[in-house]
């Protein structure tokens, strides 16, 4: 029998272990010793609520699945039919090809051929690499076509600290701007987070939040080449998880799920989704990267653990 997510690639480095899947190049588990650092799901299951998947060549939603390309309306498949949107790119259900698998890393590739609503030719690779303090994920996109291609990258991790109900964790999101949405979760404007329920800059208990919201204007923390966007999940005992992205990841989606099958049935799951562009970027152009023929683009994000026992 074959797992719904295809081949499973185990990784290990010191106390860290991870499992990466062939389908969607997904992160199925990440652990420090016996402690989960992300929400796991069984090998026999599909990724619940997009858990761990790669979001390429666009993250989040495209309103009505339609966008304008040089005066031509392109129509994407409506992969979120309940809201009549296209969502999370073209690789969510795609098996990747193995490039390299070592004890602590795996590199996979997937090609994007011209298809409904997206007439471009791309090669993509994803490398998951365990490090001394966590996991680094590196994406490279190469335009193999004859026309400039619009691209963006997102990821869908659900950080957690095993043994502590996620509702008891505090999440800090440094973003200064909230992306306002309609009842179909399509962006209709933006507003400063200051003084609103969307201000997560000083930390909020996850149990108090009900979100499926995008944020922009994430400041960069210096000390790393080019700076990093950082979002922090903290336990009462001082342990922390940092979801980070390089200087390209100036947007983030925060989603609280109360239907995710967590280890405590009454608990909430928290997705912190680093993105290089926000929802509907194919229409607005915001954060979108246009790759010239033959051009490549590489970006990285990751998960760090702090104050965990050695």
TrEMBL record:
Domain of life assignment: Bacteria
GO biological process, one term: carbohydrate metabolic process
A matching Pfam family: Aldose_epim
Membrane-spanning ranges: none
Molecular function per GO: carbohydrate binding; isomerase activity
InterPro entries (UniProt xref): Aldose_1/G6P_1-epimerase, Gal_mutarotase_sf_dom, GH-type_carb-bd, YihR-like
Protein name: Aldose 1-epimerase
């Amino acid at each position: 029998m074959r797992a719904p997510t295809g081949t499973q690639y185990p990784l290990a480095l010191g106390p860290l272990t991870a499992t990466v899947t062939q389908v969607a190049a997904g992160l199925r588990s990440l652990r420090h010793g016996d402690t989960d650092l992300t929400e796991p799901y069984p090998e026999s299951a599909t990724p619940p609520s997009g858990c761990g998947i790669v979001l390429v060549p666009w993250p989040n939603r495209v309103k009505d699945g339609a966008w304008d390309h040089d005066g031509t309306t392109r129509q994407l498949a409506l992969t979120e039919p309940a809201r009549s949107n296209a969502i999370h790119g073209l690789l969510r259900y795609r098996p990747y090809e193995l490039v390299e698998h070592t004890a602590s890393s795996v590199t996979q590739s997937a090609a994007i051929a011209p298809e409904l609503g997206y007439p471009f030719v791309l090669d993509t690779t994803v490398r998951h690499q365990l490090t001394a303090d966590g996991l680094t994920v590196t994406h490279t996109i190469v335009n193999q076509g004859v026309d400039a291609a619009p691209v963006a990258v997102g990821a869908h991790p659900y950080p957690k600290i095993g043994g502590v109900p996620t509702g008891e964790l505090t999440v800090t999101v440094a973003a200064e701007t909230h992306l306002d949405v309609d009842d179909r979760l399509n962006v209709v404007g933006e507003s400063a987070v200051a003084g609103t329920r969307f201000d997560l800059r000083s930390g909020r208990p996850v149990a108090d939040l009900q979100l499926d919201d995008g944020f922009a204007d994430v400041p960069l923390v210096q000390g790393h080449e080019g700076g990093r966007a950082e979002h922090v999940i903290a336990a009462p005992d001082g342990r922390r998880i940092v979801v980070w992205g390089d200087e390209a990841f100036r947007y983030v989606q925060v989603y609280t799920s109360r239907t995710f099958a967590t280890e405590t049935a009454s608990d909430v799951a928290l997705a912190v989704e680093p993105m290089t562009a926000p929802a509907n970027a194919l229409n607005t152009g915001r954060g979108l990267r246009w790759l010239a023929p033959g051009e490549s683009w590489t970006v990285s994000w990751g998960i760090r653990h702090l104050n965990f026992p050695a």
